[in-house]
Amino acid sequence: MKFKELSALNKADLEKKYQEAKLELIKLNSQIATGSNIKNPGQIKQLKKTIAKIKTIQKQKNE
Length: 63
Fold this sequence. Notes:
Layout lengths: L2 H5 L3 H23 L8 H21 L1
Helix pairs in contact: 2-3
């Protein structure tokens, strides 16, 4: 998601998106750990960036 899209969300929606992204990252990492190939390896990098964006916005909204 884009930074502007994420910053437009409220705190509850941000937390929900964070949990979804974190769960998806865990699933992909477990697939790699078991030795299976994933369809899009770049998705891991994208998920990490999305999680970082969400955490940044959450921190900004708490100030």
